[in-house]
């Protein structure tokens, strides 16, 4: 054998071979384009999607910072700002609460003064927009759009006058009954975030008039932004030690943030690896399927004297040409879709996004996609290159791609069904590659859909909001006006579109000292930052005269409807006995200040000062202790845990003096504007009634939600389309490379219709198995990914409809595509196809 070491000869043969294999090269180029497009589009849109939900999370928080120091002293502020680990620290102080606007009661609109660092570095970045300027004059005020809407102002104007009734907070108490002040403010600016908070920001000149201090309990806070937001418990302690904290100061930080970041990284990392594997298999599939036909041709070249090294160069050279065509096209297509089509489509849907940056172009994504696609092509053609070099000329000519011992030459085919099954698995390695590529693409789609579903604003609000709209009596704890009457509640129930109405009643209670039920709770309370004062002195006075200490150790009796009971009982794990609860034999205690597990099973005694018999004492058994987040009431009593009873029991004790604090309303169709309008109409003219609406909050988030939802949906659609295109590409390559086999079968008497049926069954087999595997592995994997990346306390759910649509599309493609490809590619006669293969 003479070694021909001529690059020009190899290049010439490669060109001839390349031109002769136009159809297969088109399929290979298409696979490279798909892979490159997958990386650029999915990563570009995916990163922008993640940035969008991260930005929305900050906006829902209302301020951008890492940790918080409560009640900071001046020396502590200076120490924190001088720390190497601290990027910047802004000071915020609550200094007043507005209660009324033009005779309309407000839902405790809080006034804050923040320094320049806090405003510019931590507040502004958390807003969707801000118009105007931070207050400088004493009568200037910045308000959130939520606060303005609550005041009835939907189109605010800079400079408009706002006559408000407020009271200032001094350094000793937060919501004390201080003198109300009437003052006309001027709106200097307004902003929108997604926190739902009704905040106002005031000037330093106004702040100085209030008497509030940064060291006032629950008033002042130092918002700290770290250079490295991924901090550990040790980092927290390193910051805390030099500060010499004094009671009740607390350095509030999330000591699980590093662990949560690792979870997110693992979840997203696993998802990204699967996307890369999916892209890798796109190319590997096409190249691997064509092994048998290529090897026979290379065997013929080997008999003519071409060496193994030269054959490998021939394989790699053709792959290089395919890469030079496919990679630039994939990059261009990815750039056009992610940076052009997606933003343009979103702006057409919402013209307000014209000036918004929707998809960020990262050059490293395109560089990485090109490198990855090149490496994938190189790895994909390594298999035929190795086989080419290792096979002898005779073995190469006889090569059919089956592993020795697995050929079934003597197997009798008893029907088309068995033939299809044999064809699917006659080369197990090939079957694994085909099923693997399809399975990975479908699994990635299922996982991404779960993540997108978990970050859907409506899904988040549905799981974090108690109802569609809350109607609240703002006179609670003050005048206790009967604004939410039984007649109003019944009228709400008759409103078209209202599904459920859950009234919440409340009453002030007088509670004597009870060691057995709350003794340990009080000890823990006084050891916490919320301590009311001196434990020994207060307990001694409380035991002697409970009424004198009722303002400190009082509690409220909260009454709920049977519908609300179901929700509470579900959150508590279904441990409550409904009949006992309805009769008033048991109750639930809600804690905020400290744990009170010892109270479970204990009887507590209380009196109702506002009832017809204020001296009579009642008792109830505490069946469970729940977190304060489960308490449907808005107003609490003193430091003793509030108790939750049935409305039937509360009405029995209070009679016609039972006071309805609020009503929670659910709609038959969530976020219904017509239903919400009708609900609000029931309380038209009531200036002391306020509303907290899930629809309003969603509308506040609408701009960001459209962007996030479109990007997430676009990501899912791209993955779905790529899954289908990968299958089409796979079947086209398979049909093209089995041309001789089909021609041989036809020469033996098999009709083209029977071949099409075999191909349909093969396609259904691959599609059905891939869908089954993606469900078996994808569902638990999507749950793990969801749990690792979710930033909200919501339950896992899967968009079943989207997945079913994709699976149905795949089944349809499995039925339609294989025979269509066969019809399009096998047009020549049997003799011409046999001769063409033999000539090659």
Automatic annotation (TrEMBL):
Keywords assigned:
Cell membrane, Membrane, Transmembrane, Transmembrane helix
Q: Chief localization class? A: membrane
The family database entries (InterPro entries) matched by this protein are listed as:
ABC3_permease_C, Macrolide_Exporter_MacB
Membership in a protein family: Belongs to the ABC-4 integral membrane protein family.
- What is the protein name stated in its UniProt record? ABC3 transporter permease C-terminal domain-containing protein
Q: Which organism is it from?
A: Blautia hominis
What is this entry's stated membrane topology?
Multi-pass membrane protein
Which residues are listed as membrane-spanning? 26-50, 266-287, 320-346, 358-379, 431-452, 710-728, 764-786, 801-822
- Residues annotated as domain ABC3 transporter permease C-terminal: 271-378, 715-824
Can you say where in the cell this protein is located?
Answer: Cell membrane
Q: Which Pfam families match?
A: FtsX
């Amino acid at each position: 054998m003479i070694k021909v070491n001529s690059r020009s000869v190899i290049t010439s043969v490669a060109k001839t071979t390349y031109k002769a294999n136009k159809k297969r090269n088109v399929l290979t180029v298409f696979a490279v384009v798909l892979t490159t497009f997958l990386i650029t589009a999915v990563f570009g849109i995916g990163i922008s999607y993640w940035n969008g939900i991260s930005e929305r999370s900050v906006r829902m928080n209302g301020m951008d910072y890492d940790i918080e120091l409560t009640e900071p002293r001046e020396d502590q502020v200076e120490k924190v700002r001088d720390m190497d680990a601290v990027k910047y620290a802004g000071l915020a102080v609550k200094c007043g609460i507005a209660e009324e606007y033009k005779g309309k009661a407000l839902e405790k609109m809080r006034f804050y003064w923040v320094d320049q660092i806090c405003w510019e570095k931590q507040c502004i970045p958390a807003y969707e927009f801000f118009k105007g300027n931070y207050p400088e004059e004493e009568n200037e005020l910045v308000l959130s759009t939520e606060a303005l809407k609550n005041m009835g102002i939907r189109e605010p104007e800079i400079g408009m006058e706002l006559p408000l009734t407020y009271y200032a907070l001094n350094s000793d108490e937060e919501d004390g009954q201080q003198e109300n002040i009437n003052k006309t403010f001027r709106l200097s600016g307004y902003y929108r975030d997604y926190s739902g908070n009704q905040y106002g920001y005031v000037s330093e000149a106004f702040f100085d008039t209030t008497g509030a201090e940064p060291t006032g309990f629950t008033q002042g806070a130092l918002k700290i932004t770290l250079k490295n937001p991924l901090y550990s418990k040790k980092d927290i302690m390193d910051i805390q030690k030099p500060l010499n904290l004094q009671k009740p100061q607390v350095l509030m930080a999330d000591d699980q943030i590093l662990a949560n970041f690792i979870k997110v990284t693992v979840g997203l990392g696993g998802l990204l690896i699967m996307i890369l594997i999916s892209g890798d298999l796109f190319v590997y599939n096409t190249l691997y399927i064509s092994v048998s036909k290529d090897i026979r041709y290379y065997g013929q070249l080997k008999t003519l004297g071409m060496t193994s090294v030269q054959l490998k160069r021939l394989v790699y050279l053709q792959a290089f040409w395919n890469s030079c065509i496919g990679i630039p096209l994939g990059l261009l297509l990815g750039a056009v879709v992610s940076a052009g089509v997606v933003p343009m489509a979103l702006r057409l849907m919402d013209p307000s996004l014209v000036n918004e940056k929707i998809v960020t172009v990262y050059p490293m994504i395109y560089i990485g996609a090109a490198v990855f696609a090149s490496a994938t092509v190189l790895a994909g053609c390594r298999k035929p290159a190795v086989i080419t070099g290792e096979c002898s000329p005779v073995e190469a000519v006889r090569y059919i791609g089956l592993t020795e011992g697995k050929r079934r030459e003597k197997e009798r085919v008893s029907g088309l069904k068995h033939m299809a099954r044999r064809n699917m698995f006659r080369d197990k390695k090939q079957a694994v590659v085909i099923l693997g590529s399809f399975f990975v693409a479908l699994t990635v789609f299922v996982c991404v859909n779960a993540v997108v579903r978990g970050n859907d604003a409506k899904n988040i609000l549905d799981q974090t909001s108690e109802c569609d709209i809350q109607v609240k009596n703002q006179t609670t704890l003050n005048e206790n006006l009967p604004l939410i009457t039984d007649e109003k509640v019944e009228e709400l129930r008759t409103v078209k579109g209202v599904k459920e109405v859950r009234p919440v009643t409340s009453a002030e209670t007088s509670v004597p000292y009870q060691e057995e039920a709350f003794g340990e709770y009080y000890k823990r309370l006084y050891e916490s930052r919320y301590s009311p004062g001196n434990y020994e002195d207060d307990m001694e006075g409380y035991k002697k005269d409970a009424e004198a200490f009722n303002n400190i150790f009082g509690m409220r009796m909260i009454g709920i409807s049977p519908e609300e009971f179901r929700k509470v009982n579900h959150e508590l794990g279904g441990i409550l006995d409904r009949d006992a609860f309805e009769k008033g034999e048991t109750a639930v205690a809600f804690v905020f200040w400290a744990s009170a597990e010892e109270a479970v099973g204990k009887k507590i005694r209380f009196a109702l000062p506002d009832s017809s018999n204020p001296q009579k004492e009642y008792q109830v058994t505490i069946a469970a202790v729940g977190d304060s987040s489960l308490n449907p009431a808005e107003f609490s009593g003193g430091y003793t845990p509030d108790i939750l009873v049935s409305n039937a029991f509360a009405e029995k004790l209070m009679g016609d003096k039972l006071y309805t604090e609020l009503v929670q309303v659910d709609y038959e169709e969530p976020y219904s504007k017509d239903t919400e309008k009708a609900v609000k109409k029931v309380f038209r003219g009531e200036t002391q009634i306020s509303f907290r609406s899930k629809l309003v909050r969603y509308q506040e988030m609408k701009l960001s939600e459209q962007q996030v939802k479109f990007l997430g949906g676009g990501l899912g659609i791209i993955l779905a389309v790529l899954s289908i295109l990968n299958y089409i590409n796979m079947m086209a390559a398979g049909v093209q490379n089995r041309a001789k086999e089909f021609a041989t079968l036809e020469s033996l008497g098999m009709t083209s219709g029977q071949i099409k049926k075999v191909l349909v069954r093969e396609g259904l087999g691959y599609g059905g198995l891939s869908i089954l595997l993606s469900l078996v592995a994808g569902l638990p994997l999507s749950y793990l990914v969801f749990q690792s990346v979710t930033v909200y306390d919501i339950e896992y759910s899967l968009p079943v409809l989207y997945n079913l649509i994709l699976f149905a599309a795949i089944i349809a493609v499995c039925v339609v595509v294989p025979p269509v490809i066969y019809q399009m590619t096998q047009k020549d006669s049997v003799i011409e196809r046999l001769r063409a293969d033999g000539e090659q």
